[in-house]
Amino acid sequence: MDNKERIIKYYNDLDRSCFMDEYKEQSHMDNPFPIGFGQTISQPSLVLKMTILLDLDKNSKVLEIGTGSGYQTALLSKASKIVYTVERIEELHIRSKERLTRLGYTNIKYKLGDGSSGWKENAPYDRIMVTASASKLPNNLVEQLAPNGKMVIPVGTDLILMTKTNGEIKKEVITKVIFVSLVGDY
Ligand code: SAH
Fold it and tell me: Could you tell which of 33, 43, 89, 95 is best to mutate to test the pocket of ligand 1, judged by most ligand atoms within 8 Å of the CB?
């Protein structure tokens, strides 16, 4: 199986209802749903699309900004070596950490705080996934990306795939998306 096929398999095996408290009975629908605090669990097809774009393998060290429900985190965890995830809302941080631990995910490190400045102590990262919409590309995240790294990030309503090749930065607009806002200092 190649990286894409593996990600599709993990996605199909993942039960989204495990990451929802309300709206559980609608978890099969391809929609975002509220998870409290004005935030949402992302639309499954978009989670899959963004994860495939990131082109993860079992050696990837990944930074995720916006843990939210932990649904995207779970898929990243399955497809990579280690995931560092940052969430700024304490209740969501605690809830997703408990949930993912209970479900048996062991290769995830959790941080409460402003992820727009990244997680410097563990940088660089092979891959960065941002699940909230930034108004511009956060410099700190670009800096914490490894040479030959990739980042998927919504900027405004553009879903951007950013690739670093020998220090050179390439940006591709993939599609239009709507995400909750990335709140932070960047
Ligand atoms: N992938 C998640 C998406 C959650 S919505 C899921 O499917 O459940 C986006 C999340 O990003 C929210 O939980 C929000 O609180 C968080 N967020 C927004 N700005 C942030 C920031 N600067 N640092 C960390 N998390 C942030």
Answer: 89
10-33 pLDDT, tens digit each:
999 999 999 999 999 999 999 999
Answer whether 132 contacts ligand 1 (Cβ < 6 A). Answer: yes
Q: Residue 10: which domain range?
A: 3-19+29-176
44 CB near ligand 1 (under 6 Å) = no
Q: Is the CB of 39 under 6 A from ligand 1?
A: yes
Residue 35 lies in a domain: yes
Q: Is the CB of 141 under 6 A from ligand 1?
A: no
Residues with active-site annotation = 42
In the structure, what pLDDT confidence band is assigned to residue 185 with cuts at 50, 70 and 90? confident
Strand pairing class (108-112; 82-87): parallel
Task: Name the burial class of residue 25, with classes exposed (0-12), middle (13-18) and buried (19+) by CB atoms within 10 angstroms of its CB.
Answer: exposed
As to burial, measured by CB atoms within 10 angstroms (0-12 exposed, 13-18 middle, 19+ buried), residue 65 is buried
Is the predicted pLDDT of residue 45 greater than 80, yes or no?
A: yes
Distance 1 CA to ligand 1 centre (A): 31
Counted domains in the chain? 1
Residue 85 lies in a domain: yes
The model's pLDDT over 65-114, given as tens digits with 9 standing for 90+, comes to 999 999 999 999 999 999 999 999 999 999 999 999 999 999 999 999 99
